[in-house]
Amino acid sequence: MINLQAVTNWQYKIIVLIEKNQLIELIYDADLVDSAELLFDSGAVTNLASLPSSLFVCKVLDGIQYEVEIQSPFAKKQKASCECRFFKENNICKHIVAALLKIRAERKRKVDARLAATKPLKTSKLSSLNINHILEEISSEELASFVKSYAKTDKKFTTQLKVHFARKIDLVDNADKYKAILNNIVKPNTGSQSRASSSDIRAISQVLGDFADQINDCIALGQYREAFNIFSSAFAKLEYVRHHYTFHRDKLNVLSKNYHQIISFFLEEKLPPELRISLFDFLLDLNSRSYYQYDDSQYNIINLIIDKAKNQDKGLLRNNIEHLISTRPQREKPLLIAMWVKLSGKISKSELEYLKPFGNQFVEIVDYMLAYHLEQPAVKMLESILKPRKIEKEVASRLVYLYVRTKNIKKLKETSKQAYLNTGDIKYIDVIKREFDAHVYESVIQELEEELLITRADPNLLIRIYKREENWAGLLLYLDKLDNLEILRQHDALLYKNERNTLIDLYKNKISRYLDEHIGDVASAYMENLKTHFIHQHFDGLLSGVHTMLKEKYSHRQKLIELFSK
Fold first, then answer.
1. 299-318 burial by CB neighbour count: b if 16+ within 10 A, else e?
2. pTM metric for this prediction
3. Per-domain boundaries in the chain
4. Residues 6 or more apart from 346 whose CB is under 8 A from it?
5. Which of 182, 300, 349, 430 could disulfide-link to 237, CB 3.0 to 4.6 Å?
6. 406: buried, middle or exposed (CB in 10 Å: 19+, 13-18, 0-12)?
7. Eight-state DSSP code of residue 471
8. For 258-308, what is each residue's pLDDT tens digit?
9. Secondary structure (3-state) at 495
10. Torsion angle, CA of 6/11/14/15, rounded to 10 degrees?
């Protein structure tokens, strides 16, 4: 701390400037400082505001108006940003330096004021000066005059004044006062000349947060009409801003969830009938606005009021959803349809007929329905588009999951087996193995084998299962049934390692059957090819086994015996 009594005024100012690293002229490029000083001296730097976290924002008029943000000015961790191209290329610009000059000037003014405050008051009867003392000493007229004067020059102060005291002011239409406060920060249109800045969105986010607190206070106190007045203006503005602006997206999304939760708070209260009608009318009107977004399965107007809707409201709500389904963007339709099903809790043939045009979106719709625990309707929808012999992977995966959830054992078994045949995804076999006993599992594998042999489909579908389970004996039997030497050669290395003797016998049988039907050069080429494969795989046992078999059974075919004796 600096002892004000120990230094002169000019010494104190120099010490403060050095301590705060405010020697701008020595830190930045001379040409940059000269340009910044011209802007500063001409009054181009305006609307300087100090925000929490040591953040300063202002506007700099340089042909066009640039918005500048500086965090922790003059500190080592100083961060700054500007909209101009020079800043994007150099990470500094004359607009930022001009803003720093403005901030330094403001601090100097405050230093001068602090120095003046240290001088003894000639007629003061107080030992110190603080807010309480000031409010006690000045008149209400003086305070009002100060507030009016200060409000004219500080937009943020004006806004906070209105936000804080709006509930105490009664107007002909009380909803208008909240709407006016919000429209003063962000205008209700998005033309290029009236688009809000980043600082405007930050300011309205703060106000919307304050209003949310006030709404909750009003609900807790039973002041439902005032809560609704604030809510209807604030919620509509929030969703409008959230749709049109990308600034401070995370903050706006959090606020949106908070305001959606307020809907539940309202509907849990015993509202006067006319107010409940007004609330429903407002919500159903807002959800049809183009800027309202259906992008969250839980935090949206329809979902939040479905469970709270009375029987007489459900028809109106159903019509509203159907209107939205026909008018909203394609990306929002799956969620809307899922909530349409949720409203009734089931799905009939007529409803399936209504949904038929949306068949290509059933998978997305079902995903939302699962979030609402609508398993049975989801099964009906997927089964209506299921093509057993050409089952799609996305449909299969959800149906298998649903059959497990609903304990539909028969359909689970058949769908999983067919899904594996169509997709080759081993997870469907894993489901069968997990959900059924060993006897049923073995029967499924046998059915797969029979079907694959009959249809001559990809044999690797079953080979993959045998290899995954290291069922080498089963694999050998299946390869024997396939009677395909090329497929056998693709997998004989593993079999030689784990079922050597059986593999040797299998090869000897296949070679014997072949030699019984072929002679001459064709047979020699066949045996030469096999010998090369056995040598490459280091199948010494097979080489000697085949050699022995040739000598015992084909002693008259000396050329083949000599081939395997080398």
1. bbbbbbbbeebeeebeeebe
2. 0.64
3. 4-116, 167-293, 482-566
4. 376, 377
5. 182
6. middle
7. -
8. 999 999 999 999 999 999 999 999 999 999 999 999 999 999 999 999 977
9. helix
10. -20
